[in-house]
Amino acid sequence: MPASFTHRFCTAPLLDWSDRHCRYMWRLLSKRAVLYSEMVTTGAIIHGDRQRHLQFDAAEQPVALQLGGSNPAELAECARIAEDWGYGEINLNCGCPSDRVQSGRFGACLMAEPEVVAEGLAAMRAAVSVPVTVKHRIGIDDMEDYAGLTRFVEAQAAVGVTTFIVHARKAWLSGLSPKENREIPPLKYEMVYQLKRDYPQLEIVLNGGINSIDECLQHLEQVDGVMLGRAAYQTPNLLAEVDSALFGEAPGPGPVEVVQQMLPYIERELVSGQRLNHITRHMLGLFQGLPGARRFRRHLSENAHRPGAGIEVVEHALSLVTQAA
């Protein structure tokens, strides 16, 4: 596995959030984090607008594509396409509990069918030379015993998968919304720690409920890597600490510098037809907890969506922060 894909720190695949604009900003904050795309279904890639679903900036690397699906032939085809587009890893979603995902027979419901998952992962591995990984829960519904978790992991390891990203909550496939499934089932970190102790040859990455770099460091005493989702999105400056705290390298830039570095990217994207608010919506949390943060958010929220909104909206929002400082 390439050194760039050591999963010591990752950002999570976040539907509607971790798009290419968000990932570009995240990469400015951390050179070492592995960035994951939103989940893209096999059908969307095979039959849909590949440019919209797969486009990314080379600066985002190392970047991984997360696929949703269960048909081995379709998964293999999409893995090949993603590798051709330049993605450095293909990840299979076995953790999303939404009804729409279940109806398509992918996501968390696949944990009940470890052999089906193994067949899909084997097909993907045979199709590409980049790493193929899986993201899953500790269990679903009444299947939450440790033996059930290990049965799932062993089935995937048997076809050569070595990296497992484990959300340390089970998922209820009925009765809870996706949002509730991220909050109500209790976190059971010890099950993930035990998985690493019992399968030391596997790379085990912990996901779920991690909100700070200090928490990352504590978990890294037990597992190989950590994955942050909402904390990284809502307080992106947290990512500026990653390279120094976890890799012993220089810290990332401050929020003012990040906005300044985003300006040329925004100008390029506007020229290509993108709307300003599609980019700036990911920047709203940059000054979280700092003087002027509310004014920065408000100015972008009230103005970036307007027809013809350009770079001057971002420059003015930044001036409100620097005045407050």
From TrEMBL:
<keyword id="KW-0547">Nucleotide-binding</keyword>
<protein>
    <recommendedName>
        <fullName>tRNA-dihydrouridine(20/20a) synthase</fullName>
        <ecNumber>1.3.1.91</ecNumber>
    </recommendedName>
</protein>
<comment type="function">
    <text>Catalyzes the synthesis of 5,6-dihydrouridine (D), a modified base found in the D-loop of most tRNAs, via the reduction of the C5-C6 double bond in target uridines. Specifically modifies U20 and U20a in tRNAs.</text>
</comment>
<keyword id="KW-0560">Oxidoreductase</keyword>
<comment type="similarity">
    <text>Belongs to the dus family.</text>
</comment>
<dbReference type="GO" id="GO:0010181">
    <property type="term" value="F:FMN binding"/>
</dbReference>
<keyword id="KW-0820">tRNA-binding</keyword>
<feature type="domain" description="DUS-like FMN-binding">
    <location>
        <begin position="12"/>
        <end position="319"/>
    </location>
</feature>
<feature type="site" description="Interacts with tRNA; defines subfamily-specific binding signature">
    <location>
        <position position="179"/>
    </location>
</feature>
<dbReference type="InterPro" id="IPR035587">
    <property type="entry name" value="DUS-like_FMN-bd"/>
</dbReference>
<feature type="binding site">
    <location>
        <position position="66"/>
    </location>
    <ligand>
        <name>FMN</name>
    </ligand>
</feature>
<feature type="binding site">
    <location>
        <begin position="229"/>
        <end position="230"/>
    </location>
    <ligand>
        <name>FMN</name>
    </ligand>
</feature>
<dbReference type="InterPro" id="IPR018517">
    <property type="entry name" value="tRNA_hU_synthase_CS"/>
</dbReference>
<feature type="binding site">
    <location>
        <begin position="207"/>
        <end position="209"/>
    </location>
    <ligand>
        <name>FMN</name>
    </ligand>
</feature>
<feature type="binding site">
    <location>
        <position position="135"/>
    </location>
    <ligand>
        <name>FMN</name>
    </ligand>
</feature>
<keyword id="KW-0288">FMN</keyword>
<dbReference type="InterPro" id="IPR004653">
    <property type="entry name" value="DusA"/>
</dbReference>
<dbReference type="Pfam" id="PF01207">
    <property type="entry name" value="Dus"/>
</dbReference>
<dbReference type="GO" id="GO:0102264">
    <property type="term" value="F:tRNA-dihydrouridine20 synthase activity"/>
</dbReference>
<feature type="site" description="Interacts with tRNA; defines subfamily-specific binding signature">
    <location>
        <position position="294"/>
    </location>
</feature>
<dbReference type="InterPro" id="IPR013785">
    <property type="entry name" value="Aldolase_TIM"/>
</dbReference>
<keyword id="KW-0285">Flavoprotein</keyword>
<keyword id="KW-0694">RNA-binding</keyword>
<feature type="site" description="Interacts with tRNA">
    <location>
        <position position="182"/>
    </location>
</feature>
<keyword id="KW-0521">NADP</keyword>
<feature type="binding site">
    <location>
        <position position="167"/>
    </location>
    <ligand>
        <name>FMN</name>
    </ligand>
</feature>
<comment type="similarity">
    <text>Belongs to the Dus family. DusA subfamily.</text>
</comment>
<dbReference type="GO" id="GO:0102266">
    <property type="term" value="F:tRNA-dihydrouridine20a synthase activity"/>
</dbReference>
<keyword id="KW-0819">tRNA processing</keyword>
<feature type="site" description="Interacts with tRNA; defines subfamily-specific binding signature">
    <location>
        <position position="297"/>
    </location>
</feature>
<feature type="active site" description="Proton donor">
    <location>
        <position position="96"/>
    </location>
</feature>
<dbReference type="InterPro" id="IPR001269">
    <property type="entry name" value="DUS_fam"/>
</dbReference>
<dbReference type="GO" id="GO:0050660">
    <property type="term" value="F:flavin adenine dinucleotide binding"/>
</dbReference>
<dbReference type="GO" id="GO:0000049">
    <property type="term" value="F:tRNA binding"/>
</dbReference>
<feature type="site" description="Interacts with tRNA">
    <location>
        <position position="93"/>
    </location>
</feature>
